[in-house]
Every structure is written in C-alpha cells, then in structure tokens.
C-alpha cells in the first residue's frame, strides 16, 4: 500500500498530567468541547482518504479501540498494535512496534494534538518527501523546536534536553509531532536506528531523537509552517482549558 494511504498514530500513553480525566479513559479520548482528540484527528484522516490507519494503543487499550471503531470502523482499515509495557517505555518503543507498516513510507501522528481541518489537509497535500509540521514558537509552548533556512529546509532540531536556560527561541519553530517519512528515509535510516535503540534497551527514549540525528547528519526535512491555523497539544488540564477557548465550533474548520 502506498504511503499516501498509511498513517501511524501513537496513542499508548495514559496522560497522567490530565489527572482525574485519565483515570477511566486514555488520554486521546479527552474531549475538547465534546469531541475527543482522537476522533478529531481520525475524522480528518478519513476525509483525506487515508485508507490504512495503524494505532498503537496501551493504557485502557480496549476502551480506545472501541471508541475508534464505533465512530469510524467502516470508513478505513484500522490496525491496532498494543504496547503492553506502555508504562515502562516511551514513544520510541511504540513506534518500533509498528515497523511492519512502515516500508512504503508513512505519516506519523501523536494522539494529543487537537487542530483545525486545514492543518491536516495541507500537511497531507504537500509533495516534499520528508516533512516536519511546525509553527512559530511562543512562550506558551514547550517541547522540540527547529530552525530552518529560507527554503524551509530544517537546519537544526533541539529536543527539550538541548534547550538550556539561555536558549534563544527568537527564530525557533515548535514541532506539532506530525511527520511525513518517506520510503527512502524509512529503509535507509529509520528502521536501522529504531532497531539499534531497542536492541540496546533504550526504550525510554523518544523517536524525535532519531529525527534529530538524521537532521544533524544532513538528511533533508522540509519544515511546513502551519501559518495562521489553530492547534494545541493537550498534556495538562491547563492545556485542555486553552484548547476549549481556541476551538468553539463543533468541528474545527
């Protein structure tokens, strides 16, 4: 199946920073104005004709699977992979579990970002081989950032651990944790790196470490800027409150 039709969603974590909201349901089922984060994302993937959606589940896996299939079961091919040690591993291990479905290239999504339809539509429509979706950094954000040149080619990637006390964010762009990864990148870089990390029992790392290493070694990633489109990553109660103020319509346009 060609990459245009394959998406991998990482949705294994509990989301403990959401406190009582994640006690009885997994983080991706958190609702923003009565729409779950995962429903908002998959609705957009289906609308853009993504035919195979691979979801790596973990915490309360059966509840999340049921939620997805009840809403979209007839609209796409869903493959569920369970990370049975989600509470002892990080997202690099969840991604590794889905290696069987990477060979033709794929789109990678994390299941904690709520966004407008236009973001996913423009991301999926972009022709560049390997893409990192980004937005201008603001002080309300945290996490991985990049810098890029005048042609939007990513020059450097900085994980949280690379951002010291005096880090200059003036020309930094925050990653949305949406990536397009080509067949060439998967075959010639990603799979080998994933296997090395897992073989070395480095299961507590993040897959972004591999992307950063690729950038440092000169692999060409295009930084696609979201422009004025709205999105928010939901990790905490405060994030959820901010998202509910940003998105007032039933479905973001």
Could you please describe the fold and organization of this structure?
The protein is 30% helix and 24% strand. By secondary structure, the protein is an alpha/beta fold. It has a single domain, classed as Alpha-Beta Complex (Spore Coat Polysaccharide Biosynthesis Protein SpsA, Chain A). Strands 1, 4, 5, 6, 8, 9, 10, 11 and 12 form a 9-stranded mixed beta sheet that branches. β4, α2 and β5 form a beta-alpha-beta unit. α1 packs across α2. The longest helix has 17 residues, at 183-199. The chain is globular, with a radius of gyration of 17 Å. The mean pLDDT is 93.
Fold blueprint:
Blueprint: E1 6-11, E2 31-32, E3 35-36, H1 37-47, E4 52-57, H2 61-72, E5 77-82, H3 91-97, E6 106-110, E7 113-115, H4 117-125, E8 131-136, E9 145-148, E10 154-158, E11 173-181, H5 183-199, H6 208-216, E12 222-225, E13 231-233, H7 237-246
Parallel strand pairs: 1-4, 1-6, 4-5, 8-12
Antiparallel strand pairs: 2-3, 6-11, 7-13, 8-11, 9-10, 9-11
Rg on CA atoms, Å: 17 Å
Strands, count = 13
The major beta sheet can be summarized as: 9 strands, mixed
Strand content: 15-25%
CATH architecture classification: Alpha-Beta Complex
CATH class: Alpha Beta
The name of the CATH topology is: Spore Coat Polysaccharide Biosynthesis Protein SpsA, Chain A
Count of discrete structural domains: 1
Query: In sequence order, what are the helices and strands, one letter per element?
Result: EEEHEHEHEEHEEEEHHEEH
CATH superfamily: Spore Coat Polysaccharide Biosynthesis Protein SpsA, Chain A
Supply the helix-strand structural class.
Answer: alpha/beta
Shape, principal axes of CA atoms:
globular
pLDDT < 50 runs, ≥5 residues = none
The N- to C-terminal Cα distance equals 29 Å
**Mean pLDDT over the full residue set:** 93
Percent helix among the residues? 25-40%
Specify the number of helices: 7
